[in-house]
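Incident log, structure service

09:12 report received: a user says their structure output differs between two submissions of the same chain.
09:20 pulled the input from the user's history:
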Amino acid sequence: DEGWRVRKDGTRFFANVVITLLRDERGAPRGFVKITRDVTARHRAQAAVEAARREAEAARAAKSAFLS
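09:34 re-ran on a clean worker, output below:
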């Protein structure tokens, strides 16, 4: 799962979360492992690329409108 999470200090970060079931030697459920990775930088970079793409498309449309 990916989404916004909140640290104990109240700051928000975008996280990739993986939860895995652990089993004992007989295969019975024993517990879970949860790994949370801070991927805020990647998320912000993707958002910046998307914003630049939208801006370029708007500029292309404006240029086409001007030339026609």
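09:41 both user submissions now match this output. Likely a transient worker issue. Closing.
09:42 reviewer note: The longest strand covers residues 12-23. The chain has a mean pLDDT of 94.
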